[in-house]
Amino acid sequence: MLPRFKSMNITSEVIAFITCKYQYSLHTQQRVKAMTNFRVALLISWILIMSITAYAIVQAGPNWPAIYFGDLFLGNPWRQQFNTDFLIHLFILCSWVFWREESKLKGAIYGFLSIIMGGMFGFMYILYASYQAKGNVSKILLGHHCHKLKKET
User: Tens of pLDDT along 96-146?
Assistant: First the structure.
């Protein structure tokens, strides 16, 4: 191989490295901005659900199970559909929270709270998890299982 090609090859590798670093930096900046937006959306959602909950307690009282299950079994068919869909989502959230926690006692408590409190607990749980994982989406989603992913790759 001629020295000229060798130097060109090194130069192209350096350019590729610098370009890759720039793209990685840009990609990282975009990910940080997206995570910040996600956290703000969680916080706004939590404030909204807390406000609506306070309003509902003032207007209808704190006996939400009677209203919820009344609508689920005896209410308007669309309320039945919505409440069933919502309950399924809560059970899925509960399962995920239980699975991602290393301590199964904490997982059971947090899972129970996610069913009983819905977004009032779930939004804050995910917000806390995002800070605990330092914005790493894999760590947010996988919890303590994230280390298994690193071993496999």
Answer: 999 999 999 999 999 999 999 999 999 999 999 999 999 999 999 999 988
Rg of the chain (C-alpha set): 24
How far does Cα 120 stand from its chain's mean position? 14
Summarize pLDDT for 43-70 with one digit per residue, the tens.
999 999 999 999 999 999 999 899 999 9
Distance CA 136, CA 141 (A): 9
Residue 34 · residue 130 · CB < 8 Å: no
pTM across the whole model: 0.77
Rounded alpha-carbon distances, angstroms, from residue 113 to 1, 25, 119, 147: 68, 39, 10, 26
Phi, psi of 136 (to 5 degrees): -75, 115
Provide DSSP, the chain: --HHHHHHHHHHHHHHHHHHHHHHHHHHHHHHHHHHHHHHHHHHHHHHHHHHHHHHHHHH-S-HHHHHHHHHHHS-HHHHHHHHHHHHHHHHHHHHHHHH-SSHHHHHHHHHHHHHHTHHHHHHHHHHHHHHTTT-HHHHHHGGGHHHHHHH-
